[in-house]
Specification:
The protein is of the alpha/beta class and 316 residues long. It contains twelve helices and eleven strands.
Length: 316
Protein backbone atom coordinates (compact mmCIF):
# COMPACT_ATOMS: atom_id res chain seq x y z
CA UNK A 1 0.00 0.00 0.00
CA UNK A 2 1.33 3.44 -0.93
CA UNK A 3 2.27 5.76 1.91
CA UNK A 4 -0.49 8.32 2.58
CA UNK A 5 0.86 11.16 4.72
CA UNK A 6 -1.39 13.12 7.06
CA UNK A 7 0.89 16.16 6.91
CA UNK A 8 3.16 17.62 4.22
CA UNK A 9 6.08 19.81 5.30
CA UNK A 10 6.87 22.44 2.64
CA UNK A 11 10.43 23.73 2.67
CA UNK A 12 12.63 25.68 0.30
CA UNK A 13 16.38 26.21 0.36
CA UNK A 14 18.87 28.36 -1.49
CA UNK A 15 22.53 28.39 -0.46
CA UNK A 16 21.57 26.82 2.85
CA UNK A 17 23.63 23.65 3.02
CA UNK A 18 24.92 24.60 6.48
CA UNK A 19 21.37 24.29 7.84
CA UNK A 20 20.27 21.08 6.12
CA UNK A 21 21.86 18.54 8.53
CA UNK A 22 20.19 20.22 11.52
CA UNK A 23 16.92 20.58 9.64
CA UNK A 24 16.81 16.88 8.75
CA UNK A 25 17.67 15.94 12.34
CA UNK A 26 14.96 18.22 13.74
CA UNK A 27 12.41 16.96 11.22
CA UNK A 28 13.14 13.34 12.04
CA UNK A 29 12.69 14.02 15.76
CA UNK A 30 9.12 15.32 15.32
CA UNK A 31 6.54 13.25 17.18
CA UNK A 32 4.47 13.02 13.99
CA UNK A 33 7.40 12.17 11.72
CA UNK A 34 6.12 8.65 10.87
CA UNK A 35 2.98 10.17 9.33
CA UNK A 36 4.44 13.14 7.48
CA UNK A 37 6.14 13.76 4.16
CA UNK A 38 8.74 16.39 3.26
CA UNK A 39 8.43 18.32 0.01
CA UNK A 40 11.76 20.12 -0.35
CA UNK A 41 12.46 22.61 -3.14
CA UNK A 42 16.14 23.07 -3.98
CA UNK A 43 16.83 26.38 -5.71
CA UNK A 44 19.93 26.21 -7.96
CA UNK A 45 21.37 23.64 -5.54
CA UNK A 46 25.02 23.14 -4.75
CA UNK A 47 26.51 19.61 -5.04
CA UNK A 48 26.54 19.40 -1.23
CA UNK A 49 22.85 20.30 -0.99
CA UNK A 50 21.99 17.63 -3.55
CA UNK A 51 24.01 15.03 -1.64
CA UNK A 52 22.44 15.86 1.72
CA UNK A 53 18.92 15.79 0.25
CA UNK A 54 19.47 12.49 -1.56
CA UNK A 55 20.99 10.86 1.53
CA UNK A 56 17.93 11.81 3.60
CA UNK A 57 15.63 10.59 0.83
CA UNK A 58 17.44 7.25 0.72
CA UNK A 59 16.74 6.77 4.43
CA UNK A 60 13.04 7.70 4.05
CA UNK A 61 12.15 6.98 0.42
CA UNK A 62 8.38 7.00 0.90
CA UNK A 63 8.35 10.26 2.86
CA UNK A 64 10.40 12.66 0.77
CA UNK A 65 9.84 14.52 -2.46
CA UNK A 66 12.77 16.57 -3.77
CA UNK A 67 11.89 19.24 -6.34
CA UNK A 68 14.44 21.25 -8.29
CA UNK A 69 14.31 24.82 -9.51
CA UNK A 70 17.23 25.45 -11.89
CA UNK A 71 17.43 29.08 -10.82
CA UNK A 72 16.48 31.05 -7.74
CA UNK A 73 12.74 31.69 -7.58
CA UNK A 74 10.71 33.67 -5.07
CA UNK A 75 9.79 32.04 -1.79
CA UNK A 76 6.12 32.13 -2.79
CA UNK A 77 6.90 30.30 -6.04
CA UNK A 78 8.80 27.56 -4.19
CA UNK A 79 6.02 27.18 -1.63
CA UNK A 80 3.47 26.91 -4.43
CA UNK A 81 5.60 24.35 -6.25
CA UNK A 82 5.74 22.25 -3.06
CA UNK A 83 2.03 22.83 -2.29
CA UNK A 84 0.96 21.49 -5.68
CA UNK A 85 3.11 18.37 -5.20
CA UNK A 86 2.00 17.73 -1.60
CA UNK A 87 -0.17 14.70 -0.88
CA UNK A 88 -1.49 15.42 2.63
CA UNK A 89 -4.59 17.36 3.76
CA UNK A 90 -2.46 19.57 6.04
CA UNK A 91 0.59 21.66 5.08
CA UNK A 92 3.33 22.98 7.36
CA UNK A 93 5.55 25.87 6.30
CA UNK A 94 9.10 25.32 7.58
CA UNK A 95 12.20 27.35 6.75
CA UNK A 96 15.26 25.12 7.01
CA UNK A 97 17.12 27.66 9.18
CA UNK A 98 14.40 27.57 11.85
CA UNK A 99 13.99 24.85 14.47
CA UNK A 100 10.77 23.40 15.85
CA UNK A 101 9.86 22.02 19.25
CA UNK A 102 9.44 18.29 18.62
CA UNK A 103 5.69 18.20 19.36
CA UNK A 104 4.80 21.51 17.68
CA UNK A 105 3.35 19.94 14.53
CA UNK A 106 1.34 17.51 16.64
CA UNK A 107 -0.15 20.37 18.69
CA UNK A 108 -0.97 22.38 15.58
CA UNK A 109 -2.67 19.41 13.92
CA UNK A 110 -4.74 18.89 17.06
CA UNK A 111 -5.71 22.59 17.12
CA UNK A 112 -6.99 22.47 13.53
CA UNK A 113 -8.84 19.21 14.10
CA UNK A 114 -10.51 20.72 17.19
CA UNK A 115 -11.44 23.86 15.21
CA UNK A 116 -12.82 22.63 11.87
CA UNK A 117 -13.63 26.16 10.63
CA UNK A 118 -10.04 27.38 11.06
CA UNK A 119 -7.88 27.43 7.94
CA UNK A 120 -4.51 28.22 9.51
CA UNK A 121 -2.82 27.46 12.83
CA UNK A 122 -0.05 29.63 14.28
CA UNK A 123 1.59 30.18 17.65
CA UNK A 124 4.41 31.60 19.73
CA UNK A 125 8.06 31.37 18.82
CA UNK A 126 11.41 32.59 20.11
CA UNK A 127 13.58 34.85 17.94
CA UNK A 128 17.26 33.86 18.10
CA UNK A 129 20.40 35.44 16.69
CA UNK A 130 22.00 32.21 15.52
CA UNK A 131 20.79 28.86 14.32
CA UNK A 132 20.61 26.34 17.15
CA UNK A 133 20.22 28.90 19.93
CA UNK A 134 17.14 28.79 22.15
CA UNK A 135 17.42 31.97 24.22
CA UNK A 136 15.86 35.19 22.97
CA UNK A 137 12.71 37.33 22.96
CA UNK A 138 9.48 35.39 22.71
CA UNK A 139 6.90 36.47 20.17
CA UNK A 140 3.62 36.25 22.05
CA UNK A 141 1.12 35.86 19.23
CA UNK A 142 -2.41 37.11 19.98
CA UNK A 143 -5.64 35.12 19.80
CA UNK A 144 -7.26 35.44 16.39
CA UNK A 145 -9.31 38.56 15.79
CA UNK A 146 -10.31 39.44 12.24
CA UNK A 147 -9.92 43.21 12.74
CA UNK A 148 -6.39 42.97 14.08
CA UNK A 149 -5.28 40.34 11.56
CA UNK A 150 -6.49 42.51 8.68
CA UNK A 151 -3.91 45.12 9.68
CA UNK A 152 -0.82 43.19 10.81
CA UNK A 153 1.11 39.98 10.31
CA UNK A 154 0.15 39.23 13.87
CA UNK A 155 0.93 35.53 13.75
CA UNK A 156 4.28 35.60 11.95
CA UNK A 157 4.85 33.28 9.02
CA UNK A 158 7.61 30.90 10.06
CA UNK A 159 5.51 28.32 11.93
CA UNK A 160 2.25 27.98 10.04
CA UNK A 161 0.12 24.90 9.53
CA UNK A 162 -2.57 25.17 6.84
CA UNK A 163 -5.44 23.15 5.51
CA UNK A 164 -4.46 22.21 2.00
CA UNK A 165 -7.93 22.99 0.64
CA UNK A 166 -7.74 26.64 1.71
CA UNK A 167 -6.43 27.20 -1.84
CA UNK A 168 -9.97 26.52 -3.08
CA UNK A 169 -11.13 29.60 -1.16
CA UNK A 170 -8.29 32.09 -1.60
CA UNK A 171 -5.73 30.59 -3.99
CA UNK A 172 -2.03 30.08 -3.40
CA UNK A 173 0.90 32.33 -2.49
CA UNK A 174 1.50 35.39 -4.67
CA UNK A 175 4.75 34.60 -6.47
CA UNK A 176 5.63 38.20 -7.28
CA UNK A 177 6.66 38.75 -3.65
CA UNK A 178 10.21 37.63 -2.93
CA UNK A 179 10.14 38.16 0.85
CA UNK A 180 6.61 38.96 2.06
CA UNK A 181 4.52 36.21 0.45
CA UNK A 182 3.38 35.01 3.88
CA UNK A 183 2.23 38.51 4.84
CA UNK A 184 0.19 38.83 1.64
CA UNK A 185 -1.39 35.41 2.12
CA UNK A 186 -2.29 36.20 5.74
CA UNK A 187 -3.96 39.48 4.77
CA UNK A 188 -5.92 37.74 1.99
CA UNK A 189 -7.08 35.07 4.41
CA UNK A 190 -8.23 37.72 6.91
CA UNK A 191 -9.88 39.87 4.21
CA UNK A 192 -11.89 36.80 3.20
CA UNK A 193 -12.96 36.43 6.83
CA UNK A 194 -11.63 32.89 7.18
CA UNK A 195 -10.75 32.01 10.79
CA UNK A 196 -7.34 31.08 12.15
CA UNK A 197 -6.47 29.41 15.44
CA UNK A 198 -3.58 29.79 17.86
CA UNK A 199 -1.84 26.67 19.19
CA UNK A 200 -0.89 26.63 22.84
CA UNK A 201 2.76 26.64 23.90
CA UNK A 202 6.00 27.42 22.12
CA UNK A 203 6.32 26.22 18.52
CA UNK A 204 9.95 26.86 17.71
CA UNK A 205 12.98 29.07 17.26
CA UNK A 206 13.13 31.61 14.44
CA UNK A 207 16.61 32.54 13.18
CA UNK A 208 16.38 36.31 12.99
CA UNK A 209 19.86 37.29 11.84
CA UNK A 210 21.42 39.02 8.86
CA UNK A 211 22.62 35.65 7.57
CA UNK A 212 19.28 33.89 8.06
CA UNK A 213 17.71 32.54 4.86
CA UNK A 214 14.49 34.49 5.37
CA UNK A 215 16.00 37.61 6.94
CA UNK A 216 19.26 38.32 5.15
CA UNK A 217 17.66 40.78 2.71
CA UNK A 218 16.84 43.09 5.59
CA UNK A 219 13.87 45.24 6.51
CA UNK A 220 14.67 47.91 3.92
CA UNK A 221 14.60 45.40 1.06
CA UNK A 222 11.17 44.13 2.14
CA UNK A 223 9.64 47.59 2.59
CA UNK A 224 8.37 47.99 -1.02
CA UNK A 225 6.69 44.58 -0.84
CA UNK A 226 5.14 45.37 2.52
CA UNK A 227 3.89 48.71 1.17
CA UNK A 228 2.33 47.07 -1.88
CA UNK A 229 0.51 44.61 0.37
CA UNK A 230 -0.71 47.39 2.66
CA UNK A 231 -2.10 49.21 -0.38
CA UNK A 232 -3.75 46.04 -1.70
CA UNK A 233 -5.59 45.40 1.57
CA UNK A 234 -6.29 48.93 2.71
CA UNK A 235 -3.84 49.19 5.61
CA UNK A 236 -3.48 52.81 4.57
CA UNK A 237 -2.49 54.18 7.96
CA UNK A 238 0.75 52.15 7.87
CA UNK A 239 1.79 53.15 4.35
CA UNK A 240 5.00 55.19 4.24
CA UNK A 241 5.15 57.55 1.28
CA UNK A 242 8.89 57.02 0.65
CA UNK A 243 8.09 53.45 -0.44
CA UNK A 244 5.13 54.29 -2.72
CA UNK A 245 7.25 54.56 -5.86
CA UNK A 246 9.11 51.22 -5.50
CA UNK A 247 5.83 49.58 -4.44
CA UNK A 248 4.33 50.54 -7.81
CA UNK A 249 6.40 47.76 -9.40
CA UNK A 250 3.95 45.20 -7.99
CA UNK A 251 0.53 44.38 -9.40
CA UNK A 252 -2.19 44.99 -6.85
CA UNK A 253 -5.08 43.77 -8.97
CA UNK A 254 -3.81 40.23 -9.63
CA UNK A 255 -2.01 37.34 -7.94
CA UNK A 256 0.78 35.47 -9.70
CA UNK A 257 0.32 31.70 -9.34
CA UNK A 258 2.43 29.20 -11.28
CA UNK A 259 3.41 32.02 -13.61
CA UNK A 260 -0.18 33.01 -14.39
CA UNK A 261 -1.91 36.21 -13.26
CA UNK A 262 -5.20 35.55 -11.49
CA UNK A 263 -7.47 38.57 -10.79
CA UNK A 264 -7.67 39.27 -7.07
CA UNK A 265 -11.44 39.56 -7.42
CA UNK A 266 -11.55 35.85 -8.26
CA UNK A 267 -11.00 35.30 -4.53
CA UNK A 268 -12.22 38.60 -3.12
CA UNK A 269 -15.16 39.73 -5.30
CA UNK A 270 -15.99 42.53 -2.84
CA UNK A 271 -12.45 43.89 -2.85
CA UNK A 272 -13.35 47.39 -4.06
CA UNK A 273 -16.00 47.79 -1.36
CA UNK A 274 -13.50 46.45 1.19
CA UNK A 275 -11.03 49.19 0.26
CA UNK A 276 -13.69 51.89 0.16
CA UNK A 277 -14.62 51.26 3.78
CA UNK A 278 -10.96 51.54 4.81
CA UNK A 279 -10.08 54.75 2.94
CA UNK A 280 -10.44 57.01 6.02
CA UNK A 281 -7.29 55.33 7.34
CA UNK A 282 -5.29 57.51 4.91
CA UNK A 283 -5.80 60.47 7.27
CA UNK A 284 -4.54 58.50 10.25
CA UNK A 285 -1.53 57.44 8.19
CA UNK A 286 -0.76 61.05 7.25
CA UNK A 287 -0.78 62.01 10.94
CA UNK A 288 1.46 59.07 11.84
CA UNK A 289 3.98 59.90 9.11
CA UNK A 290 3.99 63.56 10.11
CA UNK A 291 4.80 62.56 13.69
CA UNK A 292 7.57 60.27 12.43
CA UNK A 293 9.12 63.12 10.42
CA UNK A 294 8.91 65.46 13.42
CA UNK A 295 10.63 62.96 15.69
CA UNK A 296 13.29 62.45 13.06
CA UNK A 297 13.97 66.20 12.79
CA UNK A 298 14.20 66.44 16.57
CA UNK A 299 16.67 63.57 16.64
CA UNK A 300 14.37 61.44 18.81
CA UNK A 301 13.55 58.67 16.35
CA UNK A 302 16.83 56.74 16.77
CA UNK A 303 16.41 56.82 20.56
CA UNK A 304 12.88 55.44 20.27
CA UNK A 305 14.06 52.68 17.94
CA UNK A 306 16.86 51.82 20.35
CA UNK A 307 14.40 51.60 23.26
CA UNK A 308 12.10 49.42 21.17
CA UNK A 309 14.96 47.09 20.21
CA UNK A 310 16.00 46.81 23.85
CA UNK A 311 12.45 45.84 24.80
CA UNK A 312 12.20 43.24 22.01
CA UNK A 313 15.56 41.69 22.92
CA UNK A 314 14.60 40.92 26.49
CA UNK A 315 15.23 37.24 27.09
CA UNK A 316 12.39 35.01 28.13
Amino acid sequence: MAFAPSLSVLASVYRGEEYLPGFFENLGAQTVFPELELVLVLNDPSPREKTLARDFTARHPDQVQILFSPKLETLGASWNRAWLAARAPYLAIWNVDDRRVIDSLQRQLAALEENPEAMLCYGDYVSVGRYGEEEGPRRHTPPYGVGHFRRALAQGGAFWLLRRNVSERIGYFDEQFRIAADMEFSFRLAAKGLPMVRAQGLLGFFTNAAQGLSTRDGVQASAPERTAIQLRYGVFDKVRREFLNPASAYRLDAIKISGDWIPLTSYLPEHEAYLRIRRPLWMLGSMRNAMRRLLQRLGLLPALHKAQDKYLKREI
